[in-house]
Amino acid sequence: MFPNLFEATKEYWQQLDEIESRYQQGKLSIEEVDREVETLMKQLGRKRKETLLFLTESLSHWISTNTELLISLVFVLTVIYSWMLTMNH
Question: Alpha-carbon distance 45 to 47, whole Å?
Answer without folding.
Answer: 5
